[in-house]
């Protein structure tokens, strides 16, 4: 027996969203619980079909952007943050979304080439451990020539030059005895990589041993490149005691800067990776280190410390009748009615409070006192005189309504908005431990209406 | 300055996988750490391009299948398990992958309609809370007619019939005083839903109050349907004390079965949802409940208790030279060489041990004693006489090699394999607390070779 009539499929075929309007808080905005991220208006059956796609698209995107912003917050503004998560992300699309939203949340670049191409995110990465171990010796390098950076000269045997530099480093006074024979397959891999990408020589130095092989080999190649006008990018540490190794590597670079009078060589970039997360970065910062850049994968893109965000979709009004979902758990009670949402800013430029009003209430005005009430707690109320009022929900899909549609910003602009929003939050709202909760309120009129409904609609036994 | 030559793009354009061979353990198999899930052979540059896609595709798929199997294990074989995760999954593709691999791991159905269509997974779900609250009263129902199941008669006013049944239920001796006025918008929603889908009436009963509204309203509609030959599917509980509510609902159904002599009505299906996971299901089982079916979302699809799996891609051999990644952490040491992998079964039909050998070693033979050694621990070794030998890595992409390619099974067959594999594991390997580790070994020859390499290749200071 068929489970539905053919007419239903005809109906589905003919559906469009011309009767639907979608309002949303602009992507990249800082948002708070209870304030709707989107308001969708339209025929109930069509809007119900949008529920799952919208909730799916909003939940993970918001979660991973927040996670990226938290990593940025703990790493500080000066560090370079690279998203390295593709191989651990939850499916291919999870990986693409992760790269996009981590960039939005404040990361500088991704190793996900597809995301770079799709969204214009800067790309950054190193070679793999397998690249290093695929070499056996320097004899494997066939083409040994390197044109100088400015094109004025050619190094005919870059391999020999690298070996010469390795010996010079070994004989420097300040590094005497610091290392013995370095691993030759690693040296071959670095040399080969530098010949292919002399402008972007970033070497993974932990395949064998960081201080007795990886760093000396890197420096030999970097100094050979330097002779022909190229500046090596840096090293990546991917195992071991990252703080200690970064400090030792920094000393090594500093000694060579001094010894060979190569300006800035001591500042060669040190990137670290290997299961980093908010906590490990915080711990590294506390103990002191010399890393300039962090490559973060698993914990970032899978949002390991909280793998899901629980945004939901609620019916708040139908045929001009308000609807309200009651629950014994007050955090699950929905705020009824088609609403408008505003952010009110204070004298210092910080946002003070978000306020929701009925759709037909007047807009809060700059310089005019307005009562902001906690939606459910009678005693929590405050008068606010905003210095600036921002309407949060903007029309991104007007359907046939004729409402003006907001332009969709570029990813770069959204990222800038996100950075700017985070910057303008009052610091006590942003601290990691015991932050001051940001206030979310309703207008006096909406408060009264909620509580009128509550008293009149709650079935017996519902609220205890 | 360009970062690479045009020739590189020409090279990429011309690449194909005709020189690549991919061997893999069949999807749906139970696998253990150290045994390679795939063996990829081919030109190193091409194979390196496959690294990230393969690792991305294998990691999450294996993780969520395992998570589904763990949920099945704790729920038991008799319960129906429904995957309800799309809205919380990590991106749209995360959701599709989740539905596919949860089915493979032992779930019975999904609420993800797209996954149902793509992969033929059975679909199951209920209406939403919003559907219930979108109704105001029974007056909204325009078409009140219902044809009987066998087509022999028509109910002209199904709405009145439902109201009649609600009154009958209220007056039954055993339920006298159990409930008062039920919520009319809920009753309207249930009635409307039953008129549209009389063969699949599964009602979400917790929008208002489960025992004083949802369950009586459901029963009124179910008994009205019963009069015209339809069997109601059941109820879903999505909040509150699930164990208690399921027991109370079961009693209610039982009382009506007796009162109105409706066979099986007491066995009406009770489905529960609301942030369920392995632990909550285990706790529910321990305290006792009357649920037949669990709908599981967030914790299942995001693998909340461990959001990432750390499979990696290692170079083990190049130009017939073995390669081995050493590490201070012995669990990160890779096993070198192109290998073959076998599962050895004992007399009772259980797998005893997995063994890896060099690619050119003879295959272990049924009835012949073979020495299985722990790859790194000299003292751990055992002789095994297998009753059955299964080669694990099979060719799924032969390239131009002429090797016979395995057929790709259907999802249903893969699911059957997975169920059968899990069934045939020795129970002590499968218990949730302190399971006996399953043994993974290498041949004596491979053991000697690993340790020869280790001694000869480890740079000074590498192994401590």
Automatic annotation (TrEMBL), chains A, B:
Gene3D superfamilies: Aldolase class I, nicotinate phosphoribosyltransferase. Its EC number is 6.3.4.21. Transiently phosphorylated on a His residue during the reaction cycle. Phosphorylation strongly increases the affinity for substrates and increases the rate of nicotinate D-ribonucleotide production. Dephosphorylation regenerates the low-affinity form of the enzyme, leading to product release. The keyword Ribonucleoprotein does not apply. Residues 1-59 form the Nicotinate phosphoribosyltransferase N-terminal domain. It catalyses: 5-phospho-alpha-D-ribose 1-diphosphate + nicotinate + ATP + H2O = nicotinate beta-D-ribonucleotide + ADP + phosphate + diphosphate. Residues 338-449 form the Nicotinate phosphoribosyltransferase C-terminal domain. Pathway: Cofactor biosynthesis; NAD(+) biosynthesis; nicotinate D-ribonucleotide from nicotinate: step 1/1. One of its GO terms (biological process) is NAD+ biosynthetic process via the salvage pathway. GO terms for molecular function: glycosyltransferase activity; metal ion binding; nicotinate phosphoribosyltransferase activity. Its cofactor is Mn(2+); Mg(2+). It is an enzyme of class 6 (ligase). Keywords: Glycosyltransferase, Ligase, Magnesium, Manganese, Metal-binding, Phosphoprotein, Pyridine nucleotide biosynthesis, Transferase. Residues 232-332 form the Nicotinate/nicotinamide phosphoribosyltransferase domain. It comes from the Eukaryota. GO terms for cellular component: cytosol. Belongs to the NAPRTase family. PANTHER family: NICOTINATE PHOSPHORIBOSYLTRANSFERASE. Catalyzes the first step in the biosynthesis of NAD from nicotinic acid, the ATP-dependent synthesis of beta-nicotinate D-ribonucleotide from nicotinate and 5-phospho-D-ribose 1-phosphate. Helps prevent cellular oxidative stress via its role in NAD biosynthesis. This is Nicotinate phosphoribosyltransferase. It comes from Iris pallida (Sweet iris).
